[in-house]
Amino acid sequence: MELMPESVDRRRRQERAGDTDVPAGGALPETALAAVGQHGFGVYVHVPFCASRCGYCDFNTYTPAELGGAQPAGSYVDTVRAELALARRVLAGAPPRRVDTVFVGGGTPTLLPPGDLGRVVEAIDATWGLAPGAEVTTEANPESVDPAALRALRSAGFTRVSLGMQSAAPGVLALLDRRHTPGRAAAAATEAREAGFTHVNLDLIYGTPGETAADFTGSLAAAIAAGVDHVSAYALIVEDGTRLAARMRRGELPYPDDDVAADRYLAAEAALSAAGLSWYEVSNWAAGADGARCRHNMLYWTGGDWWGLGPGAHSHVGGVRWWNVKHPSAYAARLAAGTSPAQAREVLTAAERQVETVLLRLRLAEGLPLSTLDDVGRAGAVRALDTGLLDGAAYAAGRAVLTLRGRLLADSVVRDLLP
Amino acid sequence: MPGSTSPASIRNFCIIAHIDHGKSTLADRMLQLTGVVDARQMRDQYLDRMDIERERGITIKSQAVRMPWQVREGGLAGRQIVLNMIDTPGHVDFTYEVSRSLAACEGAVLLVDAAQGIEAQTLANLYLALENDLHVIPVLNKIDLPAAQPDKYAEELANLVGCAPEDCLRVSGKTGEGVPHLLDEIVRQFPGPTGDSRAPARAMIFDSVYDVYRGVITYVRVIDGRIEARDRIRMMSTGAVHELLELGVISPEPTKAGALGVGEVGYLMTGVKDVRQSRVGDTVTIKGRPAKQALGGYKDPKPMVYSGLYPMDGSEYPDLRDALDRLKLNDAALRYEPETSAALGFGFRCGFLGLLHLEIIRERLEREFGLDLISTAPNVVYRVIMEDGIEHVVTNPSEYPTGKVASVYEPVVRATVLTPNDYVGAVMDLCQGRRGTLLGMDYLSTERVELRYTLPLAEIIYDFFDQLKSRTKGYASLDYEPSGEQEADLVKVDILLHGEPVDAFSAIVHQDKAYNYGVAIAAKLRTLIPRQQFEVPIQAAIGNRVIARETIRAIRKDVLAKCYGGDITRKRKLLEKQKEGKKRMKMVGRVEVPQEAFIAALSSSDSTDTRTAKR
Ligand SMILES: Nc1nc2c(ncn2[C@@H]2O[C@H](COP(=O)(O)OP(=O)(O)OP(=O)(O)O)[C@@H](O)[C@H]2O)c(=O)[nH]1
Ligand SMILES: C[S@@+](CC[C@H](N)C(=O)[O-])C[C@H]1O[C@@H](n2cnc3c(N)ncnc32)[C@H](O)[C@@H]1O
Ligand code: SF4
Ligand SMILES: [Mg+2]
Q1: How many CB pairs under 8 A join A and B?
Q2: d(Cα B371, Cα B364) in Å, to the nearest integer?
Q3: Is the peptide bond before A107 cis (omega within 30 degrees of 0)?
Q4: Model ipTM?
Q5: Which ligand is closest to the CA of A142, given by its number?
Q6: B582 by DSSP, 3-state: which?
Q7: Pocket test for ligand 2, best of A46, A57, A172 (most atoms within 8 A of CB)
Q8: Going by CATH, does the domain composed of A5-301 fall within 3.90.1600.10?
Q9: How far apart are CA B402 and CA B382, in angstroms?
């Protein structure tokens, strides 16, 4: 892939209204530095490589072919460590007290050897210090791990593994272009537990065209049987520009049906809660009181700070959001030149923060204090209560919490709670 | 020089034709050939100045231009002549513009596309010209086209006009071929204006335009006497006297002059801000030496269809009123009266010449005044006589009286359809289905047939034209003119959304069609209204009798379940987009109804586009 000339790059950057350029060194405004880590501090590490691209996927990830055959393996970790050094400089005036969570995501992080991933965790610890009991997660594709690798990850400091299972039905896995066999994800989860991981997640996708109700209950049963303490279940989204979208546009595949997706969601809720996993975010279920919840994701949803390392990674520190250039070469080039890889940033206004708070918190089982709403939002909350989308008991206790039906209509409730 | 040109050296003419036959393009060549527009300034359809005209590629307003011409050939070779040319619109909605222009001319160039032949507005405009006693020169245009068949159509055209095929001139507005000869023939064949230069001044107002900077600009054609730049003018209908600020000719930009004499066409500026002070059809005279008798005026154009216009945001009602007041200044045909709708709030019931006129006004309101509007499905005017003898004029279906109705009258038109004879059956089927009565049928040539029908206006305003085109592979053309009214068996069909009648959806339809209509509109609304959080029944009813029913099932899922990881920005932007979408919805009771539903519901095709497919 050709890199964009700098001038084009800049023009593109400015197309997003409100987005601004980032100083070469990546320095943050004083206001952002004033409150670093107040609500926790995390580090996200993006690994933008996959063996092949799944037809539905629009993540910032690249196959060897797309990178011209050369996979910058060892050097990739070094580049990420260069960004970490830059992060340390930027936050030097107000370093986070400690790192509560680390999340290595992709792409397919497990395309890198466990030792490489371990070196990243080590570097983060050396930079700001990992908190005792810190949550350290890596995503893993089921076919890309084996017992030895999992053991190596565990001893490298990882505490949690998130596996992209998607489905246990062969037809569905095939349609999603997954590389693993139907039983492989559950087996990998078991191997992870045997390697010493108490926290294991399985990702499921429902509503794939051709998936039957039985396919999905089968997938749920397989995930539950694997004994994991966390399940994420996502309705298939047809993202623009993906192969899947093209096939649907050409009429080769039907579009997902919302009513089917609603049925699947109810099936997920029924099976998972029966198995002792309870929802804590619209698409996430965890065992026990809260020990199994993904603390890193909770940080995203509750206004915490985190630094995102890697191409296309998003960061948030003290009300400033920024995102890195997407292509691995552009990213590496920036760092090699000693400049920030951030492509643009936005400094959130009070109104934008309010929107985000409502948008994110309402999706949580804890919900949102009614006191955070303005008059319009409160009137909307009353309507949502009347129509059975908000829970009565929670409302009486001063919180907006979605009912089961409300979870399925969360976006419209959010719109109603905002001006 | 204006003011001192002898009538014998003046030729006033207009170019008339079926839509798209190339009037404005021919006008371009004349502008160039006579040197009033040089190559550098030239652009296609130079006289289509409004953005909306340029985008749609059609002429909406007539434009008059003064051009000098030195005759090149024939007995008059070398003579210096002043030509006043008026380019006219071709679309049937704007026929009244054509009739006004005709009254300012002695001759008309009747243009016919040499690849299409005669079409409905060719006839209509020819008859208009003959009614106005104009001399007509038949001209075949677009002879450069490979598909042109000038010999064949010269025959047809000659038959129609009553001349020899050789008398039909041949030009190409594109290449300019034949245009100098046409100008020479205009000078030779058309008479110069006649008028009494010593009589008190009388000038006919044939257009009147409001300009933000200069106030009202009045376009006149001097019939008798002369008007000088220092004169005080007087409007004969009202007696109002105005100081002249400026007087001049359009060539093709306004050019100041000292006077306008007999037969000349030009503009007057008085600084008056109100176009009503300068009514089209009125006669201008001079205060110091007024004429006694006014010239015969024009009939005011009558609105053919009505539609409710409502601001999406109720607080913009005053802005809508101001915008309509402003547009009205340049558009004598636009009518509006305040009305209220239970569903839509405060708005205006507006009268238009046709759907294109409606669409253009709506688009201009939205574009030029930044308004966001809902328009209701267009309807015609009904006259309802009650058993107690009281008469109601109904321009809004929801105001259809509920008591004992003795009789209802609906407007009818006299429609002319021109079609190749292969499609006569298809056209007759269509017209029959629309409650038409055949008045007559003529062969204009061995292949081209003219069918004349009386049709209820209500039957042709929505999709008749589309249907006609699709049933004749695009070959038929349509023209119509109002032709009184007829008694009809009509009923009001109401639409209930979630049990509540929605006044903006009511329609008046023929008894025999009410059932089909009810079924169709309920089905259409089901596809147009998005699913809500609750089930929404849609019912069509006549009085208390439900004739059709559909249900919009409740939405069950409206949530993005996928995590975008740390890209919260994307989520927020998505939400903002969703909220924008919500703003395009109108709350009707508890139901969110998209803007388009109010107008789109009625068209049987998927679009309400009345645009004549062009460019
Ligand atoms: N080939 C060719 N095309 C022409 C000629 N004259 C006009 N056209 C094309 O025909 C189309 C219609 O031309 P206009 O000049 O806008 O027609 P009009 O009669 O003014 O149309 P209305 O004002 O909408 O009634 C345009 O695409 C022109 O380019 C011609 O002599 N030859
Ligand atoms: C960052 S991705 C994980 C990447 C990892 N390479 C994998 O595919 O296993 C996290 C999860 O998002 C979900 N996901 C990705 N694309 C999706 C889409 N278009 N619709 C719904 N869920 C999607 C999948 O369940 C995936 O496991
Ligand atoms: S493996 Fe995961 S990140 Fe890679 S292409 Fe497939 S879905 Fe996308
Ligand atoms: Mg034109």
Answers
A1: 96
A2: 9
A3: yes
A4: 0.91
A5: 2
A6: helix
A7: A57
A8: no
A9: 14
- State the best of A139, A356, A362 to mutate against chain B, taking most chain B CBs within 10 Å: A356
The encoded tokens of residue B219 equal 């376009």
Tens of pLDDT, residues B169-210: 999 999 999 999 999 999 999 999 999 999 999 999 998 888
Q: Is the dihedral of CA A212, A215, A218, A224 positive or negative?
A: negative
Q: Ligand 1 pocket, B513 CB below 6 A? A: no
Q: Which chain A residues are within 8 Å of B567, Cβ to Cβ?
A: 314, 323
AA letter at A50: C
Q: Nearest C-alpha to atom 30 of ligand 1 is from which residue?
A: B142
Q: Are A273 and A21 in contact (CB under 8 A)?
A: no
Closest listed residue to residue B140, CA positions, set B127, B122, B124, B125:
B122
Distance (Å, whole) CA A118 – CA A109: 11
| Residue B242 φ/ψ, nearest 5 degrees | -130, 145
Kindly identify the ligand whose nearest atom is closest to the C-alpha of B111: 1
Q: Where are the alpha helices (DSSP H) in A135-211?
A: 147-155, 170-175, 184-194
Distance CA B31, CA B64 (A): 11
Domain boundaries, chain A: 5-301, 349-419
Say how far apart CA B537 and CA B544 lie, in whole Å. 16
B575 contacts A355? CB cut-off 8 A: yes
Contacts 24+ apart (CB under 8 A), A217-223: A217/A267, A217/A271, A218/A168, A218/A169, A219/A165, A219/A167, A219/A168, A219/A169, A219/A172, A220/A267, A220/A268, A220/A271, A220/A272, A221/A271, A222/A165, A222/A168, A222/A183, A222/A185, A222/A186, A223/A165, A223/A168, A223/A185, A223/A186, A223/A189
Beta-ladder partners of B141: B113
- Bridge partners (DSSP) of residue B269 are B217, B246
pLDDT of A69: 65
Task: Out of A49, A52, A59, give the residue to mutate to test ligand 3, the one with the largest number of ligand atoms within 8 Å of its CB.
Answer: A59
Whether the predicted pLDDT of A194 surpasses 50: yes
